[in-house]
Amino acid sequence: METDPNEMIYCPYNKAHKMLRKKLQQHILKCRELYKDEIELLVCPFNKAHLIPEPDFLAHTRSCIDRKIIAHYQHSAPAELTEDTRHEKIETEENWDDDDVPDYNPQLYVATANVVREPNGMFPSQRKAFIKAERKRLLGQDSDDEANEKTQSRGGPGKATCQTSQRSAPYKLPNRQR
């Protein structure tokens, strides 16, 4: 028996709530939290969407519509293999269990690959050290020497300034008289 997803049903917590069957699971999560102190409903073992008050639970489990689906699979015999469905065992020379391949470690891969990493969740001093180590890793060992030469040529350490070309202003500001 197929159920229509467009069928309108009522919320087990509040009968004033009417919704499409396909929206029930999403709605139940909200109402369960809202009514957790007022109403205690038990979950049907055959269908998680069935929420039943404790006095009616035993009667529901005996007569649940979805019970027959579970019972059918529990009591049906397994399918028999025939000549059409049998096949010979497939032999191969490959055995992936014998390979001594190390497990994939994403942190190790990123640390050795040419990938730009960001220092998320670090303190400023850790971030600064991380960026310095990343520059050294990506640009090579010479990156510190080049950086030191550039800062010294600009006026010493701590006085790194941005060199920009002088260009004219796009418009002139009028002179104001005081």
Automatic annotation (TrEMBL):
Residues 134-178 are annotated as: Disordered. Keywords: Metal-binding, Zinc, Zinc-finger. Pfam families: zf-U11-48K. GO terms for molecular function: zinc ion binding. Signal peptide: none annotated. Residues 8-35, 41-68 form the CHHC U11-48K-type domain. This is CHHC U11-48K-type domain-containing protein. It comes from Drosophila virilis (Fruit fly).
